[in-house]
Design brief:
single chain, 209 residues, alpha+beta, 4-stranded antiparallel beta sheet
Length: 209
């Protein structure tokens, strides 16, 4: 089943179904945002809820009122995993790329200058950067970006090397409690400049060239 707030009810659901997309109407449950009342028409108590985002408190609230078990780590764990500073820390410890450094907001200019010594361009990201938000690309000779509005909670900013590329892919995996990793799918990220505007599934075959 898919649980949606009333305001999100897609009137075009029938058309989407004809095209082979979206849940069927009988699988959709509407939960009023104001009430988040238990939906008595479905026996959902004890069933599992797969959240689209483990960082969403509203999704967790809906699951709780429906008697659902949330299939995700604790909220604070999901928040930490979603921070760019945490992600860059893991990359650095594994020795992977893109290489980068995590600095306090007032040290960004110094970090950019340091990274540009060996890189023609760098990517500057706030802790919650996404789809071009809190993100900019800086090259040698470019004016330094204003990062005063980045990462208001943590105050941390990531400065990464720019890696020339012809396409970007998003690899979706599920990590079980035992540590096993299950590949759920690979999508192509659709990008305009530095802005992520959507994904294409499945990803196109890789060109060896």
């Amino acid at each position: 089943h898919v649980i949606l707030p009333d305001a999100s009810w897609p009137e075009e659901l029938g058309l989407l179904n004809q095209l082979g997309f979206g849940p069927r109407p009988e699988q959709v449950i509407c939960a009023p945002r104001e009430e988040l009342a238990r939906h008595n028409g479905h026996a959902l108590d004890g069933r599992r809820a797969d959240l689209m985002s483990g960082t969403s408190l509203s999704a967790r609230a809906i699951a709780a009122t429906q008697g659902l078990m949330v299939r995700a780590p604790d909220h604070d764990v999901c928040l930490r995993a979603n921070l760019k500073s945490s992600f860059q820390g893991w990359i650095n410890r594994l020795g992977w790329r893109p290489r980068g450094i995590v600095v306090e907001r007032d040290k960004v200019a110094e970090a950019i200058s340091s990274m540009l010594v060996q890189n023609g361009r760098v990517v500057v990201k706030g802790d919650h950067a996404a789809s071009g938000f809190e993100q900019t690309v800086v090259g040698r000779g470019d004016p330094l970006p204003d990062c005063s509005g980045f990462s208001r909670e943590s105050g941390l900013v990531v400065v990464q090397e720019w890696i020339p590329h012809v396409r970007t892919t998003s690899i979706h995996c599920e990590i079980a409690k035992g540590g096993s990793v299950l590949l759920r799918g690979i999508t192509d990220q659709l990008v305009e400049g530095v802005h992520h505007i959507g994904n294409r599934f499945p990803a196109a075959p890789m060109d060896p060239q």
